[in-house]
Amino acid sequence: MNFTYQYNKADERGDKLMLLLNTVSGGPLPNGPKKKRTGLKIALSLFVVLLAVLIFGYTYIKSALGPLNSEKEQDITVMISQGSSINDIGDQLEKKGVIKSSTIFAWYAKYKNESNLKAGTYDFTTGMDADQILSVLTEGKEGMRHHVSITIPEGFTVPKVAKVIAKQTGQSEESVLQVMNDRAFVKELQGKYPIIDKKVFNKKIYYPLEGYLFPAKYVFNTKKTSVKEIVTRMVAKTENVLDLYKKDMKDMKKTPYQLLTMAAIVEGEAQADQDRGKIAGVFYNRIKKQIPLGSDPTVKYARKNFKVKLLYKELKIDSPYNTYKYKGLPIGPINSPGEPSIKAALHPEKSDYLFFYARPSGEVIYTKNFADHQKAINRYKSEWKKHEEQG
């Protein structure tokens, strides 16, 4: 059946009603706006994708130009043959595990107009970034003489770290310490690295950066690198390591400062890795029971002398670092703890032990009460006398 549809007033009212409903509900308007809105969505989507690509690209390039592994640095020897191109050198460095991307490295070298890379045998580390590597390669053997390796052992205090830096850079220990203790510099570091607690500015703190100079091997160009840059890299390393344990700190309800303070005590007490967790557990047990930690290294730090044997009267030294006199953690870290001690402070071994006594052999005797602890002391103290006599 054929018929012709007649548009009437009712249809007109229906169209107007639909127009009103679409307008109120945010629906499409007739004659164009729908297309404009679709175009806007497409443009916005493209912008988001482009932004994501740019962010990813920037992050990737920045990562590729940074150290391959600054947390666990390894020494790598690379021989660059005469006539090697930038691309050849990049490929060799990537294969040897010195850099992440030969393509990015070669591009960066060309961008910096560093085309005159010299042949030779070089000792690199996985803690060197692209700028440091290029600096060595452009200066050749001369560059190798200017690059030095600074190794900070676990348990070193700020003065000891300063001594190492001074020796390698040719500066005086006093000038290095002056930089490390400069309040304005420490505040600047605090702005970059939130792990530095405001408590470091307490007047009773010996050295504000104690505990923040991570013990590791670092490679620097002594001609171009200042003490501030060296110290900054050490603090950055500490933050990088602690970032790995953010969840653990949150679970334990510990601040970075509290963690480093406990880890430093464990570092000062433990001779072997297998004892770190047990020793940390003993200290946490004592804190829980409101018993002073009674750690000898804290008293030695308080008197600023680790070499001479402690005297009984020194256990009463009035210092916020003295854990014989004051309960709980000391006012701050007493050294630069290594990662094993940090792990131990985060994952203490559970036990009922409240005391421990270390023998010269390295064996640690753990006890649950003072009477048994005293028995261990009486039994093995003669060993320490012989040990001291033998030097």
UniProtKB/TrEMBL annotation:
This is Endolytic murein transglycosylase. It comes from the Bacteria. The chain crosses the membrane at residues 42-61. It is an enzyme of class 4 (lyase). It is a single-pass membrane protein. InterPro entries: MLTG-like. Its main location: membrane. The gene is mltG. It is found in: Cell membrane. The keyword Transmembrane applies. One of its GO terms (molecular function) is lytic endotransglycosylase activity. GO terms for cellular component: plasma membrane.
